[in-house]
């Protein structure tokens, strides 16, 4: 589970993302503008921030630049309809960890969240052990006493 700040002003998209993330086991605060995002971030530490660029009270890229100045800022995935390469470059140069162009599939959003979180140490690769058996879920591998068991 991750604590996520979702900053999105579109009611339908924000609601769909919020519900999808909560169903995936995440704790999500939904800010509909930069003022709310700043208020949330002032009192809560987030594992990840999903940040729209065009918000009613400002530009998400400017807010991203503010966040990057903090020593312990959370990773940021930009969500925007701006699909030009120059926009992507600006977002990455401002400090974004990933960039997702709207419209997007919610499954892809989850995969990108997982990838960014894994790179930042929030999601170690799942490994389960029971007795002498060890399962590496992401790789779909099974080990018994340290030896791989090949499965069909």
Average the pLDDT over all residues and give the rounded result.
89
Q: Please tell me what the overall shape is.
A: elongated
SS-based structural class?
A: alpha/beta
Largest sheet: 5 strands, parallel
Low-confidence stretches: none
How many DSSP-defined strands? 11
Amino-to-carboxy terminus distance = 32 Å
Could you spell the SSE succession in H and E letters? Answer: EHEHEEEHEHEHEEEE
Residues in helix, %: 25-40%
Query: Which radius of gyration do the C-alpha atoms yield?
Result: 18 Å
**Number of H- or I-type helical stretches:** 5
Strand content: 25-35%
- In spatial order, strands of the major sheet run 2-1-3-6-7
Tell me what the structure shows.
- With 152 residues, the chain is α/β, with parallel strands linked by helices.
- 37% of the residues lie in helices and 28% in strands.
- The protein contains five helices and eleven strands, in the order E-H-E-H-E-E-E-H-E-H-E-H-E-E-E-E.
- It has a five-stranded parallel beta sheet with strand order 2-1-3-6-7, sandwiched between helices. A four-stranded antiparallel beta sheet has the order 8-9-10-11, with no helix packed on it. It has a two-stranded antiparallel ribbon with strand order 4-5.
- Helix 1 (11-23) links the parallel strand 1 (3-7) and strand 2.
- The two termini are 32 Å apart.
- The mean pLDDT is 89.
């Amino acid at each position: 589970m991750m604590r996520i700040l979702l900053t999105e002003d579109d009611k339908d998209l924000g609601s769909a993302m919020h519900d999808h993330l909560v169903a995936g086991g995440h704790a999500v605060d939904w800010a509909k503008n930069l003022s709310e995002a700043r208020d949330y971030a002032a009192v809560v530490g987030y594992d990840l921030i999903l940040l729209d660029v065009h918000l009613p009270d400002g530009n998400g890229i400017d807010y991203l630049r503010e966040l990057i100045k903090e020593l312990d800022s959370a990773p940021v995935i930009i969500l925007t309809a701006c699909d030009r390469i120059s926009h992507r470059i600006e977002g990455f140069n401002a400090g974004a960890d990933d960039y997702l162009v709207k419209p997007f599939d919610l499954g892809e959003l989850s995969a990108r969240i997982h990838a960014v979180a894994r790179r930042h140490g929030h999601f170690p690769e799942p490994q389960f052990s029971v007795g002498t058996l060890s399962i590496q879920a992401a790789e779909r591998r099974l080990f018994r006493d340290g030896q791989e068991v090949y499965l069909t």
